[in-house]
Amino acid sequence: MTDTIPDPAATDDAPRCPYGYDRLPSPVPLYGPEYKRDPYPLYQRMREAGPVHRVEFPSGIHAWLVTGYRAAHAALNDPRLGKNHSLGNDNWRRLASIMPEPQHSQLQVHLLHQDPPKHTSMRRLVLDAFAPRRVESLRPRFQELADALVDELPESGGADLVAGFAAHYPFRVLAEVIGLPPELADRFDRDWGKVVQPVGPQDPGRPAYEARLRGLQTYIADVVARKRADCREPGWAAQEDLLGRLVAAHDAGELSRAELDSMVFQLLVAGQEPVTNQITTMLVTLLRHPEQLARLREGVDEPGRLARAVEELLRHDAAFELTTWRFFAEDSDLFGTTVPAGDSVIVSLCAANRDDAQFPEPDRLDLDRTPNAHLAFGHGIHYCPGAALARAELQVALATLLTRLPGLRPAEAPGDGLADLAWVPAVLARGVNRLPVAYDHRH
């Protein structure tokens, strides 16, 4: 695909567009290797053309995409836009039954798909576990987990930092934070996370997808059974055991079984995969800017330096590229465009974070940028409840890799360079599944 805005469509019943076209343009495709490798030129053209665009995802699914910082901020805080899938119209439901996660499983009624007051009560159950003070108290343990993984890397030469670090570190941290017992943590198959990338009923990969879903549902049932038993043990401490607290809430009638399973699913998948991807996007960015990588390594212990760098790396290339679906309950105006009731509305967090109306020289990496009010964790009532945890994980991971792998640089073998990276084809996320690097030695 190219980074051009398609020509206007010629349908007589198309609503008028707010940016000068007489007719609504054909849907802009948001998929393909070129787009996933670098979506930012396209996002720039879309911002310049207007705040709302009709876009297309794989399998022909259409949505209204919001670009630009002010529009994104307003949409994320718009009380008219609901998250519950019951608001979706028949056309959306017909196509989205396979996108972007198992809509027809029992795992869809988690926080991302709820509206107040249900969202409020469900969110309250998880906030204490991710409170900044608790996260900071666990930071020494996070450091131990990061060091243990680096200790397993080759002493010199190089490694794949996804297979050797990024694919494991977030889950090990998560298990500690939510109270997942080690024996259950060891059983978790990262491949189950691919249930958020389902395929159509006729796709050759459908049997494998359904097998992943069944495996994950069985695993969640085992987690619930184990935590129910733990809750009955003398001395059980709810404040240290988020999974147990959710099971107790279900047993007390506060959550349905589908809601319980969905929240466990959200923790296990959304609680780790975005951090894995964010570690990779941060490293790719720094490897593409070796001078800034070197300066950050030298100043990693300076007060506030690492925290500012992580915020800028989140802004520059966020792993959560697009939000999940939102819907209007009735035909509504969205920045000058009429959006039919039940059509899906998605906000581009990455496009918002490169808006020059909000960030001077937005394409330039400035590790000391301040202020930096990026939207990498969203905004409003659906702001990521695990943001403090993610920030701590990213800071520890980045500092550990930079200080313990001197000479960190792109891999030198043919076909392993930064230009050859294959980006994850996920609809909502950015990241790479392999990141071969070289380094002088393991410190």
From TrEMBL:
Family annotation (Gene3D superfamilies): Cytochrome P450
Keyword S-adenosyl-L-methionine: no
Keyword check for Transcription regulation: no
SUPFAM superfamilies attached to this UniProt entry: Cytochrome P450
Matching PROSITE patterns: CYTOCHROME_P450
GO molecular function annotations of the record: heme binding; iron ion binding; monooxygenase activity; oxidoreductase activity, acting on paired donors, with incorporation or reduction of molecular oxygen
Pfam families associated with the record: p450 (PF00067)
Family in the record: Belongs to the cytochrome P450 family.
Protein name per Swiss-Prot or TrEMBL: Cytochrome P450
Natural source organism: Kitasatospora xanthocidica
